[in-house]
Amino acid sequence: MKISDIRIRKTYSANRLRAMVSVTVDSDFAVHDIKIIEGPDRLFVAMPSRKDENGVYRDICHPITTAARRQLEDAIIHAYQEYLATAELLPLEEEEPPKVDTPEAAQL
After folding, report:
1. What is the Cα–Cα distance from 23 to 5, expressed in whole angstroms?
2. The model's pTM
3. Which member of 20, 25, 38, 81 has the lowest number of beta carbons within 10 Å of its beta carbon?
4. What are residue 5's DSSP bridge partners?
């Protein structure tokens, strides 16, 4: 898997949701609404999900293997940290963040 592009779409500071990200894979496939969430020990990536008719959250798309998940998460977190380093001098946008509504966030 070749990650062609990572775009930090929006950043937040009011709650555990830190950023919304879009990723392009192999210059052919885009995934939007990936969330970077601050957990108790580290940042982690939550894939886009939706609630099914039973109230259970299901990922819309996700890496199949542990190695692919690690590669994707490491690349996204690295891009986010680079973004923060370059955006440090810019004023922060204070906007009400969307509700973090994922099973991963509910466990925090």
Report:
1. 6
2. 0.77
3. 81
4. 24
